[in-house]
Amino acid sequence: MEVKQLAAFVFLAAVITTQLGAAERLYFKQNNNLSWDNARSYCQACFKELVSVTPDNSAVLGNILTNDSWIGMRKKLGGPMGWSRWSDNTLLVFQNWYPQSPDPNNTEDTCVKLLSFGAWLEEDCNSLLPSICYEDRFYGMLNISNIRTRNLTLQWTAGPGNISYYRVTYLSNSLNVVALTYNIPNLLPGTLYEFKVYPVKCGRDLNAENASAYTQPEAVTQLSVTNISTTWALLTWKEPEGNCSHYQVNVSMNGSFVKTPLELKNLSTNITDLQPGTNYTFTVTALVEDRSIEGVNTSVCSTTYPAAVTTFSVSNFNSTSVEMNYTKPEGIINGYNISVSEYNSSTFVRNVLLSESSTNTSITNLNPGLSYLFSIATFSGNLSSLSKSIIKATTPSPPTNLSVIEWHSDSITVAWQAPINNISTNYNLSGNNLEVILPASTNNYTFKQLTSGTNYTISIYSCVFDPYNKSYIRGNAASINAHTRPNPPTNLKVTKWNTTCAILEWMKPANAENALNEFQVNYTNVYWNDLKNFTTHDTSVTLSSLYSGAIYTVYVRTKAQDEYSDPISINFTTEMNEKVVIFALRCTSSTLNGCDGKDAINAANSSLQSHFERQLPGLNFTLSSFN
Fold first, then answer.
1. What does the alpha-carbon distance between residue 425 and residue 397 come to, in Å, rounded to a whole number?
2. Which residue numbers in the chain have pLDDT < 70?
3. What's the Cα-to-Cα distance from 263 to each of 190, 231, 291, 464, rounded to whole Å?
């Protein structure tokens, strides 16, 4: 049939895509001349189908036509009812037949060609003509999974129809893959990659499936805790291989995060507000710019130093032990370690380990009279806190073998043996308010300016200077009783006397005026063999029952304990009951006139006086002579 172009057909601006519903349809003009069946097979193989003409795409198709071409309409394609269905099985809803076409009298199975000016016309299906194929634009989904530092896996949607292969491109790389997945190797950690996957169909790239992703950053290197205290830890590290934009620092304890994650660009950070004595895990992770993936974690564990005890004090002590109290600090500790050493010599004694629940302890088996350095530290694991120290002296032992080696009326000398250890000794003389501090090298001392005839209790204490209280502490006393020798009383005199009694008075000894003295009084008369003695605390006595006219000798001594002073004495004569004895003497002489004269009388009197004194000792008599 000769076909003439009709003015009634108007052509719009040509485009090669139309939007049908949600799909974007693409149209491809094929210039190779084929029968309708062969043209359809080719379209189905390399595209989707021969084109179906609709009001939406008629203008587009007219724009690409340069000659008559097969379209997807065939008379008997839809079954007994001709011209009812397109080759893609969609119903015929739009027609644009050339006048007098189709021929209702033609019973043959005919096909439709699209004339170059847009009208439809029946044509023998075996005619060789160009054709128009269509295909919906392919929108596949490209997924990226199993992202690691140097590789990842691509998975994509299968392209429509018979896809020959898929062309995968990234950076300057291009590779052909038959499967719907591919593992991309040899990537750089922490780097953003853009991937495109093109389904290739009959040598033609379909619309690419696109996706981008960062590879996982590599782990940071040389992560370490370079410094740590009770409440902070300084972390440092080296940047990882590859790329990253930030670092995230997490702090955990027993598997649980204890602080808000930190993000920073530096290669170090100081973690603060930690608990003393606590084991922490510090994890540093490299991050990419969009935070879409975290790097390989690098962790280091470290324990903060335990805190020192808040208080440390001595509550009690004696010669061999010191009891002390302490207060548990904040944070975690496993226990306490008390180090004991001799303070002056720095000689180590021992360590004492205590449980974390304890609050006091007694350090025993110490030596008396020594100053010890006690240092307490808490520990957690193998870490110890700063120590707190106390210097405390134990009570010294008393000196031994205390004895009096010399004593006088105004002094007492004592000697002793010092106790063990190099100490100073404090001597206390009770009753005289005397206190003397002597060096340890001293082993005797003379107490002077004492009161004669007085009993003293001498107490000697060993003592040491205690740095804890900044004063001397002393041990138990070594004591001894001792007395000064008594001085004799003074100014003994007889104040009154008669035939049978006499009153004696004296004064207390020098240097004993205020002492409570005891005196021994002895008096005797030889003639009457009268010997008596007694003791008194008084300084005057009355002697009674004396013999008249008798000469008495009195001795008074000061008594102290069982010791007596030298005596003072006095002689006195009681008044006489006078008796006269007259006797006559005859004088004979070998010389002439030897009995005459005064000298003879005096000689005789002297001889008689001596005789009676010998014969009458202790009697008072007077010898007188007369012619």
1. 10
2. 1-23, 420-435, 513, 579-601, 603-604, 609, 612-613, 615-627
3. 16, 20, 11, 62
**All domains of the chain, ordered by start, with CATH?**
17-136 (3.10.100.10), 142-214 (2.60.40.10), 221-303 (2.60.40.10), 312-393 (2.60.40.10), 400-479 (2.60.40.10), 490-573 (2.60.40.10), 579-627 (no CATH)
Return d(Cα 518, Cα 320) in angstroms, integer: 46
pLDDT attached to residue 8: 29
Tokens 């004592």, residue? Answer: 414
Locate the DSSP E strands across 75-128. 111-114, 120-123
- What's residue 608's pLDDT? 72
User: What three-state secondary structure class fits 258?
Assistant: coil
- Residue type for 626, please? F
pLDDT of residue 476: 86
What is the pLDDT at residue 13? 25
Nearest to 447 by CA among 398, 488, 499, 409: 409
Nearest CA to 452 among 538, 570, 566? 566
Give CA–CA dist 380/304, Å, rounded.
9
21 burial class (0-12, 13-18, 19+ CB within 10 angstroms)? Answer: exposed
Contact 169, 198 (CB under 8 A): yes
With beta carbons less than 8 A apart as the criterion, state whether 168 and 181 touch. no
> What six digits make up the tokens of 410?
């105004």
Q: For the whole model, what pTM was predicted?
A: 0.64
